[in-house]
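Sample entry as discussed:
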Amino acid sequence: MTFSVSLPNTTGRLPPLRIMVVDDSVVMRGLISRMCGDDPAAMEVVATAANGQLAVERAAKRDIDVVVLDIEMPVLDGISALPKLLAIDPRIVVIMASSLTSRNAEISLKALEKGAKDYVPKPSSVVTVNGGEEFKRELLEKIRTLGARYRRAPVEAPARIAPAVRAPAARAAHFAKPYALAFGSSTGGPTALTQVLKAIPAPLRVPVFITQHMPATFTALLAQNITRETGHSCVEARHGDLVTPGRIHLAPGDHHMTIARSGAHGVINLNQDAKENFCRPAVDPMLRSLADFYQRNLLVVILTGMGQDGLAGSEVVVKAGGSVLAQDEESSVVWGMPGAVARAGLCNAVLPLSQMAGEIQRMLTA
């Protein structure tokens, strides 16, 4: 399916995104509504609901662009309301909002499989200043980016299709045989990672490293899901783990993952250094350390995600002689991270998600 971004209408400006906030807590509904109200040119809260059933009834008007959907609610919970909302209006962008519990993390990952575009972890307390500010920044960024990506056409003017942004020509197809494979991803990443890894035949003969932007509670479950769905062993990395061929090492939430040398072996190092690109874990520190360790024998894959985390790290990889692949715009939930490396001319190829595993396998076995 091809999505388009509508260019400005005849008034010269797109109307604000229309938001519905669904949460059984009146305090949380008010908090999210006030946060959205701080950017009135970009978004407007036009409806709130205390449970999923009321949200479904309100969605029947088919005038909502983005729904911020709580998980645990009476009458009809978020995961049950999700398919009903999308059945009413498939164009709605649903962002799940969940507290950081193992149960809600598992439900959030299931919601992504069922059509939610992303999730935001709610702060443990609405009075926590730092937690609230981080939640606000992440929430508003996701509403703006995902809302723009899937925006419905304005009523007052027919939609026009924005011209595609062309990436620079790919680098020469020539590459050194990879001894390691690394993935960087964010929004849409859990589904994309599973799809690609599932299509790569076992056994993996090289170590694999993944940094997916996720909180700590989520990454352990993601590792389990990848193992279960793909047949490849995926572990949430621990400090001091030996790098093992055939194993997928996943950066744990709230920790950067880097690789250090210990004799002839690679060892996982975890740290809580400052966030990079607003993220911890971040892709850039992982790629810098991998480029130093593997030099030209490193293959990097940048998948769907917001922002440009992975761009600076990919520049280091390319300077060391390594190779970079990026997911194309049409198959990405958000073409931020892969778009950044593609536009910078760092990629050996920019590919649809459906072709990524085949190209990785070709390069690994060349």
Notes: The radius of gyration is 21 Å.
